[in-house]
């Protein structure tokens, strides 16, 4: 990822989007990484070279850019972010009309333009049109005025894109906010803070007597919570809580919740007991959203904390998800520690092994045999998931079943088989 490539990709995306009747405005946002301004300028220059009009929305959560694309009728939105990854990384996310993420076919079409891109050229800085105020006002409108008066909340912004949005929205609703992770310097995004490192959040909640704490990742499309005792709730907890509340009110379209293959089987059991159904997709919020649209569902997400409330947002939005949980707490008059006890997790173990290469799993006989043997043992009682990470050189292992010792042994067997297959970087 460098400025020359960012120019080419911006040009290519604009040419792809320009196949529609009119390209017009292209909306750009970024997180707080030091590389963000230069990469954004390069993308904007590429867009301008392709005939688009780039507008910079400023430092802004990814879902706020998606919403701006939707509400302003833009043909394209671009976010410079590496999400939950370290500050040295950066990446580019695209949204097309309606605030939708690009499909695999869309991405292939954009890539097809890359070889035709001209050499990078200078361009005027994109017009600045900060969008944080509009997003804050809209988010605050999701709860009644003063709804959080008397509430003390701890908010961890991961030194990222939500620094100027989430704390302000919660204060606007009347909450007392204790902020952490709000001093971005370009190099500290996600470092020991945020949804990837929630220990500081949980400690602060327990020490301050807050009703709950919430932590975002660097670009704000994820959220995890902790209850008043400082115990962490991940995406499975939040999705189950929201789904059960909606089922009780007959407010879950199709009585359907969409999750990924990573979610705990306890989610299925809890939702099924209330007369709902759980549908699973491959990992990735894009897959979740596609299945939600196909099924007419409006709630879905991932264990990591991507929560999609499709009735109000076209993509995963950590602030919206947190506001929905706060709404349930207000309506039911119950603390988060009690609401979370509505379901029980199946024992689950995971591991992430760094790998040198990523051959098909079927081409690794020791690992394929270990997976098959474990699946046979857990048939009808649990599940096994082995996949490569989409963003890092990692092989991710997950085993779930009714007995903790059996699950732990299963993950150990898969890790040993991975090393025997010769792809583990620590061999």
SSE layout and pairing:
Layout lengths: L2 H15 L7 E6 L5 H14 L3 E7 L2 H11 L3 E5 L11 E5 L3 E2 L2 H9 L14 E2 L3 H9 L11 E5 L9 H7 L3 E5 L18 H10 L3 E5 L6 E4 L5 E2 L1 H14 L7 E5 L4 H9 L3 E5 L3 H11 L3 E3 L5 E3 L8 H15 L3 H4 L8 E7 L10 H14 L4 E6 L5 E7 L3 H18 L6
Parallel strand pairs: 1-2, 1-3, 2-6, 7-8, 7-9, 12-13
Antiparallel strand pairs: 3-4, 4-5, 9-10, 10-11, 14-15, 16-18, 17-18
Helix pairs in contact: 1-2, 1-4, 5-6, 8-11, 13-14
- Reading off the top of the CATH hierarchy, the class of the largest domain is best stated as Alpha Beta
CATH architecture label name of the largest domain: 3-Layer(aba) Sandwich
Number of domains: 4
Low-confidence stretches: none
Main β-sheet description:
6 strands, mixed
Assembly of the depicted chains: single chain
C-alpha termini separation: 29 Å
Query: Widest sheet: strand order?
Result: 5-4-3-1-2-6
The proportion of residues forming helix, as a percent range, comes to 25-40%
Task: Indicate the radius of gyration in whole angstroms.
Answer: 22 Å
């Amino acid at each position: 990822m460098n400025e020359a490539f960012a120019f080419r990709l911006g040009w290519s995306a604009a040419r792809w989007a320009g196949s529609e009747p009119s390209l017009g405005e292209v909306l750009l946002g970024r997180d707080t990484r030091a590389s963000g301004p230069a990469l954004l300028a390069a993308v904007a220059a590429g867009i301008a070279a392709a005939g688009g009009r780039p507008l910079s929305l400023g430092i802004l959560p990814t879902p706020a850019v998606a919403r701006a694309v939707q509400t302003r009728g833009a043909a394209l939105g671009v976010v410079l972010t590496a999400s939950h990854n370290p500050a040295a990384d950066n990446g580019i996310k695209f949204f097309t009309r309606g605030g939708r993420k690009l499909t695999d076919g869309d991405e292939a079409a954009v890539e097809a333009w890359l070889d035709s891109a001209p050499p990078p050229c200078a361009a005027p800085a994109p017009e600045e049109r900060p969008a944080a105020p509009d997003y804050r006002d809209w988010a605050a409108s999701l709860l009644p005025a003063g709804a959080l008066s008397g509430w003390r909340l701890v908010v961890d912004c991961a030194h990222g894109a939500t620094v100027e949005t989430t704390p302000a929205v919660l204060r606007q609703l009347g909450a007392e906010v204790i902020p952490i992770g709000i001093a971005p310097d370009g190099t500290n995004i996600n470092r020991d803070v945020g949804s990837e490192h929630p220990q500081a959040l949980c400690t602060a909640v327990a020490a301050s007597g807050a009703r709950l704490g919430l932590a975002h990742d660097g670009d704000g499309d994820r959220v995890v919570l902790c209850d008043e005792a400082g115990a962490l709730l991940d995406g499975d907890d939040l999705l189950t809580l929201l789904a059960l509340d909606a089922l009780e009110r007959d407010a879950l379209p199709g009585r359907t919740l969409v999750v990924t293959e990573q979610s705990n089987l306890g989610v299925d059991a809890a939702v099924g007991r209330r007369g709902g159904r759980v549908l699973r997709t491959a990992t990735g919020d894009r897959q979740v959203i596609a299945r939600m649209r196909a099924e007419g569902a409006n709630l879905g997400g991932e264990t990591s904390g991507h929560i999609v409330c499709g009735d109000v947002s076209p993509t995963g939005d950590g602030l919206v998800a947190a506001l929905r949980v706060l709404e349930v707490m207000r309506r039911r008059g119950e603390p988060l520690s009690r609401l979370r006890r509505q379901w029980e997790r199946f024992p689950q173990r995971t591991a992430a092994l760094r790998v040198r290469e990523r051959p098909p799993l079927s081409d690794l006989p020791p690992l394929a045999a270990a997976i098959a043997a474990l699946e046979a043992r857990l048939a009808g009682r649990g599940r096994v998931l082995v996949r490569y990470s989409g963003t890092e050189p990692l092989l991710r292992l997950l085993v779930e079943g009714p007995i903790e010792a059996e699950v732990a042994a299963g993950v150990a067997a898969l890790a040993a088989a991975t090393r025997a297959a010769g792809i583990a970087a620590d061999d």
